[in-house]
Design the sequence.
């Protein structure tokens, strides 16, 4: 088995395991999202390619929209401290949306299309 990206494989495995732990600790929605994103990254690390990257990018944008909506819902109880800014879903939702857009654009890049 040839691995295309060890970094994607490692991060995906960590996210997958963290999602399973989070799911069993009671965070059903966020746990399932982490399991899905981790499995996508593992597949992307093993298989690679344009289609996998585009699917991952679209999944990241959808997950980011979910997190932004949840973060906006939590704004009335948030405080302007670094822990609340970096620990709430609004920040990670914006991070996920921008990362998903980056993955989508990279999926159409010539560096991916010309690889044989």
Sequence:
């Amino acid at each position: 088995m040839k691995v295309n990206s060890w970094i994607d494989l490692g991060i995906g495995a960590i996210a997958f395991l963290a999602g399973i732990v989070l799911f069993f600790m009671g965070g059903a929605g966020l746990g399932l999202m982490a399991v899905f994103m981790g499995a996508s990254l593992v597949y992307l690390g093993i298989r690679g390619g344009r289609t996998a990257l585009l699917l991952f990018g679209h999944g990241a944008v959808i997950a980011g929209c979910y997190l932004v909506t949840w973060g906006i819902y939590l704004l009335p109880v948030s405080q302007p401290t670094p822990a609340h800014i970096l620990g709430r879903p609004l920040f990670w939702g914006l991070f996920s949306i921008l990362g998903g857009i980056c993955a989508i654009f990279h999926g159409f890049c010539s560096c991916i299309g010309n690889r044989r």
Q: What stands out?
A: Residues 1-48 form one domain. The mean pLDDT is 84. Residues 50-74 form the longest helix (25 residues).
